[in-house]
Structure formats: structure tokens, C-alpha cells
Amino acid sequence: MSDAVQLPGVAGLGTAPLGSGPGWYLDWGRTERAGAVATVEAAIRAGVGWLDTAPFYGWGRAETIVGAALASQETRPMLLTKCGTFRRPDGSAYEDHSADAIRADVAASLGRLGVSSVDVLQLHDPDPRTPVERAWEVVCGLVGEGKTRAGGLSNHPVDLMDRAAAIGHVSVVQHQFSLLHREAETAGVLDWCARHGATFLAWSPLASGFLADGFEMESLGAADFRRNLPWADPARLDLARLRRELAELAAGARMAMAGLAVGWVLAKGARAIVGARSPAEARAITDFRPLPPDLAVAVEDVVRRASCPG
């Protein structure tokens, strides 16, 4: 069975941007290894209680960076990682949730992280070839073996969550969720988590940086994947208006724009996985708090006005 787990703090460190580098097709711009390790170390020293990583992030690069940072620290935050995503020879990704694949993936992750177990192991994306019941039995087995304290599901729809929950408790559920991407809310994922006692984790609460302070489209590299996201399309979003009005609202509330965006996610009852690429960004994770209801409504109004019809 998969046990329940309590994450300390409403926001944790997301390590996907730290995986950016040669050979991984999600280009965030290069982050040097020393700076990436320092970012994780800064988060731990600042008191960030948990961090989320995955073998997929840079095909092991992010986990290796986390492992290097952990080696220099006396205290260890709770560790969440994933399994089941593998690399084809051409660099693209595919899912394999067979028992042998999951176990091999976990063993490799533990080696990169330099630990004997993690706190939460999540199936990264659905595998259409493997019944989720079979994969979840493997995760529950790894809980029994002490390789992980609990299991979670990442990017799985409600019907697959139901099927996994029939086998054993789903402790953590992770989906993309932000002011600009609310599908987890409309698809019933948040409600499912509330009914089943699962912690909901919002990945990309800053919409891949579009809701972060200082974001500029013009500064992105030519290969940066964010140039192709929906929010970069002026036919869908007036980004300049959105950021201008959010900045004004943030100034009036005496907080950063990121505080508005992450605070809105937290006000929805989610925990936030906040990506960071510098020690300063990592330290700021401990400052996030849920928005009061009136400010949360005001933020939604800003997004509504900036969204283009169609």
C-alpha cells in the first residue's frame, strides 16, 4: 500500500529548469552546474521543506544536481521524484510502466540522488501500453520495500486516478496549474484530491515564467521552448497588458508579481512547485502565501481582461 505523506510548507523547489542542457529538448537556456547546485543548496538552507525532480529533467541532469547539493548539507528536505519516462535514440520521450522499467528507473534515480529512498515516487505520465493498476502495484510494492514512503501520480486524468486508488492510496497528485492554465480545476482533479485525501501539487504555477517578475519574451533564446507556448501568441493573450496590470496590482499589495501568481494557486488549496534558477529565486520560495479572497478575485479579473476572445 502507498502511505499518506505530509509535505512541510506550501511551496517547494521545482528542478525542471535546472535540467536544461544539451540533449534535452525542453530548452530553458543554459544553467551552469555550479550555479544549479548553489540554487538547490540555497533552497535547503532557506528552509524549503521539499523539492520535486525527475529523471526526465535533463535526462538525469537535475537529479544529479540535487544529489550534489544534498551531499553538502546536514539537513535533507523531503524528496519527490518520478519514474517511467525514458529517452529514445532520437532524444524524444516515451513511457514504460512495466515492473522492470519502473524498478530500473528508481534504482538509477536513487544512485543519482545519493540516497537509499525517496519520500514520494510518482508515475510521471500515463503509459497507454500498461494498465495503471499494474504500474500502481509496483509503486505500492516499492513502498513496502522502503524505496519510497508514498506514491503519487503526475499528469494522470481522473479516470486513471480512480483506477489506481482502487489498488492503494494515492498520496500526491501533480498537474500543471496556474492563472493561465486551469484545466486541473475544470477537469475535476482538485475536487478528486479533496475527496481522496491526496495532496495536489501545481507544477508551473508561474506559467513557465510568464507570470514571474522580470520576464521578457525578447530575452529568450531562439530555441527556448517557451516561445511556442500558447501565452506567447498575441491572438490568445495580451501579454503586455497582463503583466502591466499584474505589476500594478502587486505594487498595491506590496508584493512581487510572482507572489500574486503563486499565492492564487495556494488560495485554491494547492501546493506549488516553484522552479528556480538562482539562489535568490530559491530563497524566495519560503515567502509565498495564499492570497486573500478579494485579491484572488482581482487577479482573475486581470487575466480575464488580458485574454483574447476566440
Please give the domain count. 1
Q: What's the total count of β strands?
A: 10
H-E order: EHEHEEEHEHEHEHHEHHEHH
Tally of alpha and pi helices: 11
Any idea what the shape is? globular
The separation of the N and C termini measures 46 Å
Low-confidence parts, pLDDT < 50 over ≥5 residues?
A: none
What is the CATH architecture descriptor? Alpha-Beta Barrel
Strand order of the largest sheet: 1-2-3-6-7-8-9-10
The CATH superfamily title = NADP-dependent oxidoreductase domain
Task: Describe this protein's structure.
The chain is an alpha/beta fold and 310 residues long. The protein has a single domain, classed as NADP-dependent oxidoreductase domain (TIM Barrel), CATH 3.20.20. It is 38% helix and 15% strand. It is built from 11 helices and 10 strands. The strands form 2 sheets. An 8-stranded parallel β-barrel has the order 1-2-3-6-7-8-9-10, surrounded by 5 helices. A two-stranded antiparallel ribbon has the order 4-5. Helix 8 packs antiparallel against helix 11 and helix 9 packs across helix 11. The longest helix has 15 residues. It is globular, with a radius of gyration of 19 Å. The model has no long low-confidence stretch (mean pLDDT 94).
